[in-house]
């Protein structure tokens, strides 16, 4: 059976509304005009410090206060995490199927570990034998080390990475692992511009894609 590692935000969950709410509360607190949901969604993918840097660049806030602003946005996010976040359709059912087939499932995200585990608990996602967060190692995706660490925790077997974004595609490329691209997440580039082994629009398609990849490598 395979070792399958998933990204989180934009792949399994649509967390952009909660992240937007946290940033909105922070900007209101700072007396700065807020940013709309599509703008904040476009900032997601490289971890919270990078997102806050983009928020600062898009507002009159000063970059020298980046560390303080990041801490405050994280506090707001911890307060709202799970309020507006939703699973993408079919996620729970697909994870149940893959786990029932004997695949080892892991998670690799640039979200910090504490809010990652909080939202997994909130969503009832108990399927993962390995969870690597954005603060688990000194580096984050697209560095391949976090993804490799997640695979290592899952033992032996063919490796498959599932994600939605440019960061995920680059992570898989650097780790030299097959990449399944979920097309309904936070991707900004055309599908054709991202290296991938296959794409899927619905999680109902994923078990068959995994089975096909397993057959191709047998």
UniProtKB/TrEMBL annotation:
The keyword RNA-binding does not apply. It is an enzyme of class 3 (hydrolase). This is Phosphoglycolate phosphatase. It catalyses: 2-phosphoglycolate + H2O = glycolate + phosphate. Gene3D superfamilies: HAD superfamily/HAD-like, Putative phosphatase, domain 2. Belongs to the HAD-like hydrolase superfamily. CbbY/CbbZ/Gph/YieH family. Specifically catalyzes the dephosphorylation of 2-phosphoglycolate. Is involved in the dissimilation of the intracellular 2-phosphoglycolate formed during the DNA repair of 3'-phosphoglycolate ends, a major class of DNA lesions induced by oxidative stress. Pathway: Organic acid metabolism; glycolate biosynthesis; glycolate from 2-phosphoglycolate: step 1/1. Pfam families: HAD_2. Keywords: Carbohydrate metabolism, Hydrolase, Magnesium, Metal-binding. Its cofactor is Mg(2+). It comes from the Bacteria. Its EC number is 3.1.3.18. GO terms for cellular component: cytosol. Mg(2+) binds at residues 7, 9, 164. The gene is cbbZC. The keyword ATP-binding does not apply. GO terms for molecular function: metal ion binding; phosphoglycolate phosphatase activity.
